[in-house]
Amino acid sequence: MLTGRCQCGAVRYTLSGEPIALYACHCLECRKQSASAFGLSLIVRRDDFRLAQGIPSSWVRPADSGRHLRCWFCPDCGSRLWHDSEPAGETMSIKAGSLDQPVDFSTAIHIWTDRALPGIQLPDGVPHFPGEPPDY
């Protein structure tokens, strides 16, 4: 079982199943929300997710794909925790930095690489897509 929380600990969650994929997203929105060079998203089955503590807040934003994302965050510290597609699907995207256990970055699939910051060099042989992958 994996566990995660916001920065202040007011909102906590658990994941009971194995993650499906880890994405390193280089799009502008992920850079903005993470205040970094890219965002890390762990794709999990919605049925494996459980809110363990707290009441998160959310807002909805359009994605480059034309879909809409509901972005969940802690109302106390503002930490982004997970994203749902609108309407909600079978999977959801956990912000991997909110996990209590570290993820193995060597398994990350890099997406939106055509928007990567200048100087970012992908490791040799990693799966990558210039935009959104077909199964995202």
Order of helices and strands: EEEHEEEEEEE
Relative helix content = under 10%
Radius of gyration: 14 Å
**Total DSSP helices:** 1
Q: What number is the mean pLDDT?
A: 92
Shape: globular
* DSSP, total strands: 10
Biggest beta sheet summary: 7 strands, mixed
Low-confidence stretches: none
Terminus-to-terminus distance: 23 Å
Numbering strands along the chain, what is their spatial order in the largest sheet?
6-7-8-9-4-3-10
| Class by SSE composition | mainly beta
Strand content: 35-45%
Descriptive account of the structure:
With 136 residues, this protein is mainly β. The protein is globular. It has a 7-stranded mixed β-sheet. Strands 1-2-5 form a 3-stranded antiparallel β-sheet, with no helix packed on it. Strand 7 and strand 8 form a beta hairpin. The longest helix has 7 residues. The mean pLDDT is 92. Helices cover 5% and strands 38% of the residues.
Summarize the structure in short.
With about 140 residues, this protein is mainly β. It has one helix spanning about 30-35; strands at about 1-5, 10-15, 20-25, 40-45, 50-55, 55-60, 70-75, 80-85, 90-95, 110.
List keywords for this structure.
7-stranded mixed beta sheet, 136 residues, 1 helix, mainly beta, 3-stranded antiparallel beta sheet, single chain, globular
Can you lay out the helices and strands and say which pair or pack?
Layout: E1 2-5, E2 12-15, E3 21-25, H1 28-34, E4 39-45, E5 49-53, E6 57-62, E7 68-73, E8 80-86, E9 91-95, E10 109-111
Parallel strand pairs: 3-10
Antiparallel strand pairs: 1-2, 2-5, 3-4, 4-9, 6-7, 7-8, 8-9
